């Protein structure tokens, strides 16, 4: 039985410039912490090797401290072996990066920078397909098909890229053959690039990122523990938790008669988990202006409990009645502005975008009038 961990897309050094305050630093530190969490899983599961299928670093020019601290952490977990494959974000085109890694890497870090076999253990050979550039323009795994190994050898593939058009950077000529494992006689093909875990077939998987960095995939970060009993046996892959932050889309569907504050309270995670949660609250359905204002105020009140909390109202229809306008003002400039916005929001001759802008402005005006606006 040969056991190893399959991970990818650590994106060490990612800046997270779309956030403010101390959150970018916390998210960067969480990515560095993945190395220790992977090592802990490996020790607990009796796996001596950790395969990193590309994009270990977020850019081709990570800061020296990002690179050196990562290597120091890996060195600390010897005799575990870390195998680093160049991905599209940290491709071989970044010659200074890989030269520095070669000079600084400890003995338990293997740099898979050439398409040639690497012996991982007796009878176990790794066939890596390092990314030569960000967009190599060809299937870099083709060489695996024709490369011979002794009979009975466990052949493992390691690659980074798309096997279909779901990749953000997919180009037709460089899509990895989905049946590469079968063509090349691989016991397992470990892939990186897609940030969500995907089983392509029984012998081919994307591990997904161990520490999510966006709301897109809707799943916690994991690594895969892979067990191989022999070249012909199907691999056993088990997902193990690795993420310290949760990225969650929370769907809040409202009816006009619902209490938005109560609905929100029932949806939010328990208080202690919120500090490590980035949440995007997506409101749909229909409510009154009073309900939208109350919802916005409740979200603003809860936001300091979270790493990040935002409210998306784009698909929430807001009903407004004359009595609602009275709560803004009964006469004068504010009332005239409210009536104009209400008319624009319901004007079928206007574009959907213009109506939405008017609706949002009316809701904002109502919130200010009620003292709910942040």
How would you sum up this structure, described in words?
- By secondary structure, the chain is of the alpha/beta class.
- The chain folds into two domains: 2-241, Purple Acid Phosphatase, chain A, domain 2 (4-Layer Sandwich), CATH 3.60.21; 246-370, no CATH class.
- It is 31% helix and 25% strand.
- It contains ten helices and 15 strands.
- A six-stranded mixed beta sheet has the order 4-3-2-1-11-12, with helices on one face. A six-stranded mixed beta sheet has the order 5-6-7-8-10-9, with no helix packed on it.
- A hairpin with a 7-residue loop joins strand 11 and strand 12.
- Residues 166-171 have low confidence and may be disordered.
CATH architecture identity of the largest domain: 4-Layer Sandwich
Q: What is the residue-averaged pLDDT?
A: 91
- The percent range for strand residues is 15-25%
Label the structural class: alpha/beta
Total discrete domains? 2
What percentage of residues falls in helices of 4 or more residues? 25-40%
Radius of gyration: 26 Å
The oligomerization state is single chain
Low-confidence stretches: 166-171
N- to C-terminal distance: 59 Å
Largest sheet: number of strands, sense, barrel closure: 6 strands, mixed
Overall geometry comes to: elongated
The CATH topology annotation of the largest domain reads as Purple Acid Phosphatase, chain A, domain 2
At the fourth CATH level, what is the homologous superfamily of the largest domain?
A: Metallo-dependent phosphatases
